[in-house]
Structures are given as C-alpha cells and as structure tokens.
Design a protein that fits this description.
Number of helices: 8
Distance between the termini: 40 Å
Radius of gyration: 17 Å
Structural class: alpha/beta
CATH superfamily: Ribonuclease Z/Hydroxyacylglutathione hydrolase-like
Strand content: 25-35%
Order of helices and strands: EEEEEHEHHEHHHEEEEEEEHEEH
CATH topology: Metallo-beta-lactamase, Chain A
Number of domains: 1
CATH class: Alpha Beta
Helix content: 25-40%
Largest sheet: 6 strands, mixed
C-alpha cells in the first residue's frame, strides 16, 4: 500500500489556498479520502492524474466529515462514477444524505440576527452555498474502532469536536494518520482547525489527546499537508496549549 498527497491549489474569497485530500492504493483498490469544494471534480482529476490514476479507477471514497470543503464534490463524483463506494462515519450519514441540517448552517443561522449589517450579505451567501450542496447516499457507514480491510488496513478513529461525527484514519502499516480536520498545520506547528468554529472545542482537544494512544510517525493534514518529526511531542504540546 502507498499513499499520495493530492495538494490542490485554488483561490477562495480572493485568497490562494491549498487542501490536501489523500489517495490510498494497493493492487486491488484506489481509495480517495475527501474531495474538496463543489465543482472540484476537475481539480481532483488533475491531482490523481499526477500519480497515473484516473477518477474512473477510484473504487472507494471515504469522507472524514460533512463540511463543504470535504464533501462539496461528493455527489458530482458519485454521479459521474456510480461504481465508487461512498463511506462515512455513522453519525455523519444524515448530514451527507440530507436528512439533517449541516452544522455550519445551524451555526450561521443561530448567530445571523446578531451580526453587524455589513457582515450579513457575506454570511447569507455562505448559507446559500451550504444549502446548495447536493446530497448523496452513503454506501457504507462505519463505526469507531472498525478496521477496514483495504490498503493494509484502515482503522476508523472517532475524533469529535470539530463536528460531532468527525473521523480520522490510522494506517498501521505505515504508522500514518490521515487527520481530516482534527489537527492542521499552521506555521510549521500542529493546531486546532478553526477553533472559533469548533462544535465543541473541549471535545476537539480530547480527540487530539486520544491520538497519543497510536504509534504515529507522520500526519497528513487536510489543511497543511504532511507533518513529520516528533509527532508525539507535537500532539502533547498542542494539548498543553489548550489545557494550561
């Protein structure tokens, strides 16, 4: 099994940004982890092409959570390539399938009336964008601690806080953690993803602490790319920042 980082550069709200979905592959499967904003199918295709892979050859797509920058192109990819199995944590299924209002929309709606007038048009546009994300049926719901048998084994770690159903993926064969948004890299250090928007910041810190139970040599962050070095010390330092 090997993993490939799919660094995707784009402009968002007038700023250059990068996200890093992950591609896992072995002789049987090619598995995509997360898939960017709406209309990112072409960018995902270009990114996997760099590794001599086509979207048509992807067998499975695992979603770490339902935020728009992780699932925005999920329905479009499934529509274009219906053979791809969509896999998500059991708590996330109602959001992805459209049976529950997404958390970022709930957050925006709950604070909208208190916003200054000059901010309301931007937030309204954000809410409209969230409402327009196409829903899609999940083919397989997974549980905490479940080990998926592909690509040398993929352990599901429930890492709530950013949103309640957030998961990270542990690859024991390479001692690699695919973090999703449980941690990000900022100025070379591990940090909490948008702590001001975390559904439960205390829970997010507990999730980081939970990662110390794993033998991790590198972390793939959706925002920040690959983190190597003394991972354990970096995780401990992050926990201390928020608990001292």
């Amino acid at each position: 099994m090997n993993y490939c980082l799919l660094d995707i550069e784009f402009e968002h709200n007038g700023q250059q940004q990068i996200i890093t979905p992950t591609l896992l592959q072995d002789e049987y499967d090619k598995i995509l982890i997360d898939c960017g904003y709406p209309n990112f199918t072409g960018l995902i295709e270009q990114a996997v092409n760099k590794y001599d892979v086509t979207l048509d050859s992807i067998t499975k797509l695992i979603v770490t959570h339902h935020d728009i920058d992780h699932v925005g192109s999920l329905a479009a990819i499934k529509w274009a390539y219906p053979h791809i199995q969509i896999i998500a944590y059991e708590m996330e299924v109602p959001y992805i399938e459209g049976n529950k209002k997404v958390i970022r929309l709930e957050q925006a709606e709950s604070t909208f009336n208190e916003l200054p007038e000059e901010a309301k048009s931007y937030v309204q546009q954000f809410m409209d964008t969230l409402k327009a994300v196409e829903t899609v049926r999940v083919d397989q719901a997974v549980k905490n601690g479940e080990i998926l048998p592909w690509c040398g084994g993929i352990e599901i770690i429930h890492t709530p806080g950013h949103v309640p159903g957030h998961i990270s993926l542990y690859l024991p064969s390479s001692k690699t953690l695919i973090a999703g948004d449980v941690v990000v890299i900022e100025q070379g250090k591990l940090g909490i993803a948008n702590p001001q928007f975390a559904d439960d910041l205390d829970e997010a810190i507990r999730s980081v602490r939970r990662l110390l139970d794993y033998d991790i040599e590198q972390i793939i962050c959706y925002h920040g790319g690959l983190f190597q070095g003394d991972v354990r010390q970096a995780l401990q330092q992050l926990v201390q920042e928020y608990t001292t």
